[in-house]
Records
---
Amino acid sequence: YTYSNNSYMSDCHFIGDAPLQNTRFVDYTAGPTSPRPYSMQYGVNSNDVTNVIFSNDTFETRDNATISFAPDIDIRGVGYYGYNSYAIFNSCVFNNLTRGILKTSTWGPGGAYIDNGSFNGCWRSISNDGSYNFICFNNQIQNGPEIPFFSSTYLTTHAIGINGNTIGPGFHISENTISGYTGGAFGNNYGIIATGNSGNTLYRNTVNNCNYGITGFLAGDGLYQIKCNTSNNSHEAISLFAYLDAKPTAQGSCI
């Protein structure tokens, strides 16, 4: 017997008009070398809940206060956070947030189906850490600025359109358009980062004006097909890093 949650949220607005974080991600006044502990606030927080459908919803922060060091992208909260939770997003809008959608899992369940979304000015629009069955299709993403730590490490601060970290089998990232932040300083950003094993696909995505277009970390027994992707005006268009004898499928002919 399988219990299926048929809950849905349609045409809802989750709007914050003040900073959505109890303490800053970066203490600018102290000149930090690493992030501080912080308490992030969410539009929706889901724990071990499956199959909630979000349709035509808007998640945004209207906090436009400026500070002397950088855009305050780090205190704008998360639109949706799901832990061991599977959710479906159709035609939703995410504006001016630290993270639009953040999914995490300790043992594989969860993931998401995200299609026809609009992400504008988020530091990291879509993030998935450890969940299976992660599908992103036909989303329009405009990256926000990076978070400028004084002393940064690889990927620590950079804005990322779609960030798939240790994704299990069943991820498909296809036909998304991602544009880099072009607002001046703090523009070091990535289009797509994906780490996973066999049975996964990166197909016909378009990345514009990002420092790094598509970055794949390849694990397991051959990873995924990488076909028909386009990266325009990028320092590195497509970068692949393999370990454990993984080999990506060649770009090949487009369908």
Note: The radius of gyration is 18 Å.
---
Amino acid sequence: SSLMKSVDLIEEAARDLHPEALFEYSHIILNQIHREKDIEEAKGYLHSSACRGFIKSKVAFGQLVYDSDEPHEDDIEEAIRFLDEAASDGESQAQFLLSQIYSSSKFGLQNDKLSAQWYEKSLKSENANAMFIEARSVLNNPHLTSEDAEQSLKWLELATEKGSQDAYKLYLKIFSESSHPVETVRLLYEHYLELYPEDYQQHIDLTEYLFRKGTVKNDVNLMKESIKKLIQLFRHDATPAKIKRKLNVLSPKWLAKYDE
């Protein structure tokens, strides 16, 4: 197939030590694209690429080590070195990862001052993860001001645009609890579900939102729409059994309310 040929060509380029090909081939191995998954092999390709100055590989190597349960001491040292180089060059995800590494005792490197410094830099660099965490923290403040709320929404919007699923989910939650028009909120849900179709909880949240609004507004059409979506979700073959059990609980309640 054409995909297989592409993978073979990337592997060939990686064996010739082309930095970007090394990075791409590590991705292929980690995601089992016509290759067996081998974390150590992928890490080796990333290391080779990072040593050749490829910034994406420096960050990816750091992330891979950070996500490891029991990383080797040498890998930790290399991860810190690569992340520090990338972060100093302004790479926001490297800055964020360093803030997380220094905020915990995972690698025995806890340093609150360094953690705060890198976190602030990642936030100023508009890192999606940092903006999500900051927005969530600010919005949970009992003394939230309108200015803080507005800034938090801007952070969530930016983080969503940069691909943060967590930010999008929080953004949806805020909008679904607001007085925004149903059409506005529905479009947000539908766009989210186009991006993340396997997030079945958000499918349920959309149906619950529509039913709730239909009940409040005494809008039979909204209630019908929500029940229709619920049935479609239940009949969908890929819907997990746990979700179907939840739908089984919801449907009788909704139908009873609808009959009223």
Note: The chain has 14 helices and no strands.
---
Amino acid sequence: GLALGKGESLWKSVYVSWERHPLALSFSGRHDPRAGAVEGLTARFDLAAIGTVDVAGSARTAPALSFDLRTEARLGLGPLYSLYAQTGVAEEARLKLEGSLGASFRLLKDGPSLTAGGRLTIVDAAIENPASKSLFLGLSADIPVSYDSAPAASDGSLPDRGFLRLGEFQSPGLTLKSIDIPLRSGLNALGLEPFGVDLYGGRLELGRTTFRLDPATGSFRGLGSLALRELDIARLPVASPQFRLTGKFRAEFPVL
């Protein structure tokens, strides 16, 4: 095992005080130096006050790097975000996070292709942004993920189901409650099922929206639709010192 409890590290905008967040690493496995392989690998990364990451599986370095690993992570969002060094931002103005993040993945590399499949979960999360005076409460998610760095031809289907839920959103000009967004996932793709929310006396409706990743370039492309129906202009968070705004507003964007 390995224990790190003194000193500090800085990588780009991530700062870790090892006294505040000591790391305990334990690992075991069977190493065959002639085959360049490690079988029965198990490892645990334990960061005090942040959470744990467990890894199990096998790895080889010859004739080329390959591995088959299963990972389980359980992390606190607040302590994890505290590692991000918000240089020049006053303590009272910094973004605040609460809740927990979970991840369960299988990572497989055999030849040039890297695949990752599993789920991300968020439980009882809250986000407060003092700069914009906005607050997200009761945030939870179950997000299926399927990635392949060199995929074969795909039929574009989204067979896996998940969700994104928000108990309440508060800001100076808007309050929303009980938002439930069904999710669908497929190979290198994530989709939002159609949903709507009441907004300023009218309604916002988002059609089925899909985001697809091109692993060769790292770029995303999306396709969806949006409709704003009968929004009450008098309730919008805008004001004119010269005249009162009234009327209804509607708009449709069949393709986004």
Note: The CA atoms of residues 78 and 97 lie 5 Å apart.
